[in-house]
Each structure stands twice: as structure tokens, then as C-alpha cells.
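Input record (Table S2, row 570):
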Amino acid sequence: AALKGPLDENTLREIEEALILSDCGVETSTRLVEKLKEAWKKGHLKDPKDVKKVLREIIGEILKSVERPLRIDNYRPFTILTLGVNGVGKTTTVAKIGKALISDGKKVLFGACDTFRAAAIEQLSEWAERLGAEIVKHKEGSDPAAVAYDAIKAASARNVDVVILDTAGRLHTKSNLIEEMKKIKRVIARETGSGPHETLLILDATNGQNAIQQVKSFHEALTVSGLAITKLDGTAKGGFILPVSELFKIPIRYICVGEKLEDLLPFSAEEFSKALLE
Amino acid sequence: RLQERFETLFKKIKGQGKLTEENIKEALRDVRIALLEADVNYKVVKDFLEKVKEKAIGQGVLTSITPGQLFIKIVYDELTQLLGSSHSPLNLGGPPPHPIMLIGLQGSGKTTTAGKLALFLRKKGKRPLLISTDTRRPAAMEQLKKISSQIDVPFFSFEGQKDPLSICKDARQYAIKTYSDVLIFDTAGRLHIDEDLLEELVEQKKAISPCEVLLTVDGMTGQDALNIAKAFDEKIGVTGFILTKMDGDARGGAALSIKAVTGKPIKFIGTGEKLDCLEQFHPERIASRILG
Ligand SMILES: Nc1nc2c(ncn2[C@@H]2O[C@H](COP(=O)(O)OP(=O)(O)OP(=O)(O)O)[C@@H](O)[C@H]2O)c(=O)[nH]1
Ligand SMILES: Nc1nc2c(ncn2[C@@H]2O[C@H](COP(=O)(O)OP(=O)(O)OP(=O)(O)O)[C@@H](O)[C@H]2O)c(=O)[nH]1
Ligand SMILES: [Mg+2]
Ligand SMILES: [Mg+2]
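Output record (magnesium ion complex):
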């Protein structure tokens, strides 16, 4: 059927450009533009203003399937294990989630399992102090799995609802660091019987296509149960969550939009797809 | 792998003798996809393909190489040339002390890289001083202090001081006391769109008058690298880049974006968390990494 009306090749090219610039990736962007073409041929696009709306709906539909907030229930202490590559915002996000849960009436305990990076323990300790929350920590250089073990033991003894474990940044390509994380997970599983109840991978919105590889590698090695996307207060759109959602179907729990404790929001497919096309 | 793809694509033009707009069309499309998948910015890719087209069209294919080999060589050479020189040294000209400022987005690797630079310079016989002006991030000063002691370099800051500007001013006095000839200033991470924090950096720069303002860019950065580099360079003025976390498997297309939009050189590559993981920038290596 001949394409007539307001949607021309130029507009389609601009849309593809906007999607690529948002880090959706070439493959996903091309495929979304194809879907728009189909919608157009079927007559679903009568008005140029419809283009953005239809695209938002297509994207929203992809993301709706991974809009599943974290439910703290069934287990006590509910154990959240965080992980991610270096500098994405793990420690800050751990503090933010702690604050959100405390505001929700939960008793929270932090585990300082980053025993490697300079002043990582001090950094989390300061956040714990600001929140008036308990923290379990060992000396720098000690075994992170031992800290996880102690944190869970302390949580059970002190009637804590949620344990949130901060870990050292690690590139997904470093097999020894992946093994270290596997060990931490094993220790948690043994100590809690059912944990970790959430394995939360933290992704940085400023990353490009490598984010997909991060999810793939971490998920294959460790089974990730949730994602959080940080630094969405910048100009990066985090479009990689489209291919990530389609490929891995992992729920996106939170998005982070700043450096303060309150800069944590539950993931909304509708809000995200709107912001993506802004 | 691109080369193999080109071999297949160009098999049919083997007899034709030269590269034409028509016979390189598909190959250019493949290059475009490779660069976009490598995170090179969309607009930079567009300009790059134009340059390759100019260089390629009309080129006669010698019998000694295949058209596929010729085309990949044109692409590779153009990319290497655009990435800049492999010898952009630190500018430490004039009388000491030489101040260096590290700036960049949150988590891009400034504090760690400050330590790496200090170790690099100490090994070259310099007497660096590490200074933290990060008054915001919890335990930021402690982090740089620990790094300093790991590499046996003096450290200066002012725990409890809220104003980074006064730390900058007091640092010079301290440098004289420690006979330091290079002053490495770590700054707090900030967004390139935060007007107030960019202004704070402008003020810090005035107080420091650095001979180097180095922007750390995470090697995994995507399309946004262009916006980041452009904003920092326009507002603050950047003298060079350090591309960090290149020990992962990110293709590193951000390198081309930041160089193309500012013209400023990439001076170093961060290749690990340890303080000796700082390498010279090699454009040919990054070029083949970007091309995959
Ligand atoms: N603008 C912005 N900055 C953030 C956000 N989340 C974290 N940050 C900042 O990013 C920087 C790194 O945060 P950290 O929490 O130390 O990151 P990390 O993943 O724990 O880092 P490592 O433990 O070193 O791997 C800090 O300066 C944070 O304040 C966010 O959502 N937006
Ligand atoms: N693998 C790897 N990690 C790195 C490299 N450079 C820095 N890091 C890590 O990246 C994380 C963030 O580094 P920082 O030096 O704290 O980053 P920053 O820019 O000072 O962060 P803010 O001060 O919060 O803005 C830490 O875990 C570092 O160890 C590198 O070249 N490779
Ligand atoms: Mg951390
Ligand atoms: Mg820092």
C-alpha cells in the first residue's frame, strides 16, 4: 500500500535518529520505526501528532511487562543483594532504598560488603548514620561473604525486616570478581535458606550498548531478579532498557534521578516512555 | 569481522578497478552500524561516513590488495587519524608548581584517576600533591586520602570545609611546605547541565589557574558523550580527556565523539581499578576496538 499523508521518509529518519541518540541501539530503533510504518499502513496514524503518541504506546507496551515493583514480603530478613559495574551508583542507591523502606515502617540493616575500594565502608557508614540505620561492617580487605554472613546473622538477631548489601563495583568481564559474587550469593542462600530475595543489578543511564552486555553476563552468571537505572537526571535517556527488557524480561524496580536520598522513584513504563521521546 | 564482511561485499567489484559511490554503498552502511553499535554519536558517524566516502571514491584498486582490504584500510586510517595523536603529553610547562584539575560526571573515575596521575608523575621524578575539593560526597576526602597513602604521596584537604574554593586557595601554601611541584586537584562529580555546579567549577579554575583541565569520561558512555564533552568544554574549557574503565568490553565509541566535538586530545586511558592502571592513549588500538 502506498504510504501517503504526513509520515514521510524524512520523519521516519528523524525518529530513528532520536531513538538511536537515546541509546536504544540500531537494531531496536530500526525495528520500532518498522512498527510505526506498519501502524501507518494500517491507517492508525492519521495525524502527524499521532506519530509520537503511537511510538510512546509501542514503547510503553514493551516496558509495561517489566514494570513490577519490589515487594518486601514473605521472608524475614528480606535480603537485597546489589551489584553492578564501577561507579554506577550502587552505594548511593542502597542508601536511597534504605530510606524508602524506613519511611515505609521497615527496620533496615545495611551490609558493607565492598571491602575493596578505598573508603567504601566509610561512605556507606555515613549514609547509615544519616538514616539512623544499623550497619554491619568489617575491616577493609576482609572477605565480603563474611560481611554478608554477619549482616544476615545480626538482622535475624535484631528483628530486622530488610538487609541491603552493598558490594564492590565489578566489571562483568572479570571472572574472579564474578566468582566472588557467586560465593556471596551462596553464603546468603545457606544462611537464609531462600535468599537473596532480590538480586538487584544497577545500571547507569549514561552507558551505551555495553549495558546490554552487562545484563547478559551478570544474569547468566548470577540470575538477576531486578534492575535499577541511575543518573536519569542527566541528558542520557537510558534507551538500552528497551532491548534489555525484550531480551531478558527482568523487572525494573527503580529509577534514580539525583544524588539525594529522596531521588529514588518506582519505575513507571508510562513515565519512562514519555521521557524517552522528550 | 568487518573485513570479512567487506571481502564478501567487494568480491563482485574485483574486476571493476576502482571504488565508486555505487559499489561502496553497502559497505558504508555496514560501517555505520558498526560505529553506532560501538556507541559513536549519531552525528559524528554521519560526518565520519562523509569523510570516508570522499577518501574512497575514485580510489583505484591495485592488484596487490583486494577492494575489501582497501576499503577497510581507508576506514581504519581515517578513524585513527580522527582519534588524534598517540603523543599528547601532560602540559607541565613554565615554572612549578603545576596545577592539574580533574573534572567530570559522577562516578566517571576522577578520584581514582587523580591517584593514578600522582603515581605516574611520582615515578617520573615529580613531587605531586593530591588535593581533594569534593566537599559533597560522603567520605570523598577519606577516599583520596587513603589513595595518597597507598602511593606515598602527600595529601591536602580540609575535612568539614564546605567551600571548595577556600581549599583551592590554601592548597598552594601547603604545596610550598611539602615542596610539591605538581598539584592534582580532585573535584566533586557533577552534571554537565547543572548551571550552579558548572559555575562553581569556573570559580575553582580561576583560583587554581591550572595548566591542565582533564575531563574523565567513562569508556562505557553512550550517545551522551558528545553532549557531556561539549558542555564541559564550552563552560569550563577542557585541555584533554582521560577515558576510564577501558578494561571492560565496551567498544569505546565515546572516544571518537568527544574528540570530534571538541578537538581536544585524549591523553590517557584508565585500564583498571589499581593505581598503576593508567596507559598512554593509542589511537590505532582504540580504532580497531571501535570497529570491532
Ligand atoms: N546525578 C546523579 N548522580 C548519582 C546518582 N546516583 C548516584 N550518583 C552519584 O554517582 C557517584 C557514584 O555513586 P556511588 O554510589 O559511589 O557508586 P558505586 O556504584 O557505589 O561506585 P563503586 O562502589 O565505586 O563502584 C556519586 O557521586 C553519587 O552521588 C543519580 O541518580 N544521579
Ligand atoms: N575497572 C575500572 N574501574 C575504574 C577505573 N577507574 C576508576 N574505576 C572505578 O570506578 C569507580 C568510581 O571511581 P571514582 O574515582 O570514585 O569516581 P569519581 O569520578 O571520583 O566519582 P564521584 O566523585 O562520585 O563523581 C571506583 O570503583 C573505581 O575503582 C578503571 O580504569 N577501570
Ligand atoms: Mg560503592
Ligand atoms: Mg570522586
